[in-house]
Write a structure and sequence with these properties.
Mean pLDDT: 97
Largest sheet: 7 strands, mixed
Domain Aldehyde dehydrogenase: 3-452
Strand content: 15-25%
Number of strands: 22
Number of helices: 15
Family: Belongs to the aldehyde dehydrogenase family.
InterPro entries: Ald_DH/histidinol_DH, Ald_DH_C, Ald_DH_CS_CYS, Ald_DH_N, Aldehyde_DH_dom, ALDH_GabD1-like, GABD/Sad-like
Protein name: NAD-dependent succinate-semialdehyde dehydrogenase
Radius of gyration: 23 Å
Pfam families: Aldedh (PF00171)
Structural class: alpha/beta
Oligomer: single chain
Length: 455
């Protein structure tokens, strides 16, 4: 019997050993998925929507229990873990309320015959998802995949096997037929091999660029539709006419939410020199106010990082910056003791060729870089291989909107930071990926758009 360990990152100790599925079991799951799809796609959309509503109700009813599971298995502080669950419920309600309208056939341009555009499900969607939002990352794809009549096979991160199994249980408790949503406990190599299987019709992947590139290659080779979200290095631009107090107040949670382990978090703070000193002072002050400790405690802001391997990458990025002249205004760093605790770090004197500017920093590190002009801010913001999100801070709406239009990203927050919402498409450009989740745009990613002409 092969197992993977579920580890509590707060203590570094094993919670339990989870048995991995065998190749034979995975093949049976694929077969079950394909068989179930034939019935699920014919299920009336109103019935599917009722099940989505049931799912949302269970999430809300048990939000504290699921939040505790998230906190125990990946370290997210409780005051963020419970809202993650509630947000998933809200998202399921959104698709339950809107799926029927999204599926309505659309009339095409007038002609000599009736012409309609129909939206039909593809089949089994293989979802390969990361650990940092154990419920949201899975359910933000599953909600519209299932609402559209597709079925899903999940390969979740090996860091959160208990969350992965519990999500499948919730679907069954909500009344979804067996096979509509199944969790596989397998390694990445096994999951990748499934892309070539006939039963799999599309792939939804969230993770690192290198892994995403391999998924894209395999999917393209096998002519399978895919959607990729591969992280970001989001700029947070503070212009000389910004409300600096508000910008700093939002900047701190924007960087340090989920202990900085968030793809859409602000990761590069680009500040015009007229307000740089004030912003930096307020940012440091508010960073020092963050409470670090046991993620189960309701007042804790910063919990552990998920694994030591993640800490080592972050330490190398900080070391590189300091060796090239950056100054640690808040030294932060690894905290001795059990688990994987890392205190927030704030760096000034940053230059654009440091790793904290060119790579995704997936942890509580905030680099601040000063620029002289608006044009320089835009150029620096776009000088990245990534293009997921961005924030622009200015009290002149027209100015902020003009800059937002010049940023090479999938999302922009004006006087706010980016957060995924069910009604807005989520995804990026460049090495941040391709395709979208959420909203009608995400809903249609895994639908066959069929033209029907009747003479």
């Amino acid at each position: 019997m092969t197992t993977i360990s579920s580890i509590n990152p707060t203590t570094g100790k094993v919670i339990s050993e989870v048995e991995m599925h065998t190749d034979e079991q995975v093949s049976q799951m694929l077969k079950k998925s394909a068989e179930t799809f034939r019935e699920w796609k014919r299920t009336d959309v109103s019935e599917r929507n009722e099940l989505l509503k049931n799912f949302a109700e269970i999430l809300r009813k048990n939000k504290d229990e699921y939040g505790k599971l998230i906190t125990t298995e990946m370290g997210k502080v409780m005051k963020q873990a419970v809202p993650e669950v509630v947000k998933c419920a809200t998202m399921f309600d959104y698709f339950a309320d809107n799926a029927e309208k999204m599926l309505e056939p659309e009339p095409a341009e007038e002609g000599a015959c009736d012409q309609m555009i129909h939206y039909e499900p593809m089949g089994t969607v293989l979802a390969i998802k990361p650990w940092n939002f154990p419920f949201w990352q899975v359910l933000s794809a599953a909600a519209h995949v299932l609402a559209g009549g597709n079925v899903m096979l999940l390969k979740h991160s090996s860091y959160v096997p208990l969350c992965a199994l519990e999500i499948e249980n919730i679907f069954l408790d909500a009344g979804f037929p067996e096979g509509v949503f199944q969790t596989m406990i397998v390694d990445g190599k096994t999951a990748s091999s499934l892309i070539s299987r006939d039963e799999v019709k599309a792939v939804s992947f969230t993770g690192g660029y290198d892994s995403g590139q391999k998924v894209a290659e395999l999917a393209a080779h096998n002519m399978k539709k895919f959607v990729l979200e591969l992280g970001g290095s989001d700029p947070f631009i503070v212009l000389d006419d910004a409300n600096v107090e508000m910008a700093a107040k939002v900047a701190v949670p924007s960087r340090f939410i989920n202990t900085g382990q968030t793809c859409i978090a602000a990761k590069r703070f680009i500040v015009m020199e007229e307000v740089a000193e004030e912003f930096t002072e307020k940012f440091v002050e508010k960073t020092l106010d963050l409470k670090i400790g046991d993620p189960m405690e309701p007042e804790t802001d910063i919990g552990p990082m998920v694994r030591n391997e993640q800490m080592l990458v972050l330490e190398e990025q900080v070391k590189d910056a300091i060796s090239k002249g950056a100054s640690p205004l808040v030294p932060g760093g690894r905290i001795a003791g059990e688990g994987y605790m890392y205190s927030p770090t704030v760096l000034s004197g940053v230059i654009k060729d440091m790793k904290v500017m060119t790579e995704e920093t997936f942890g509580p590190v905030a680099p601040i870089i000063t620029v002289k002009t608006e044009e320089e801010a835009i150029e620096l913001a776009n000088d990245s291989e990534f293009g997921l999100g961005a924030s622009v801070w200015s009290q002149k709406r027209d100015r902020a909107m003009r800059i937002a239009s010049e940023l090479e990203t999938g999302m922009v927050g004006v006087n706010s930071f980016c957060t995924p919402q069910a009604c807005l498409p989520f995804g990026g450009v460049k090495k941040s990926g391709m395709g979208r989740e959420l909203s009608r745009h995400g809903f249609l990613e895994f639908m066959n758009i069929k033209s029907v002409k009747l003479m």
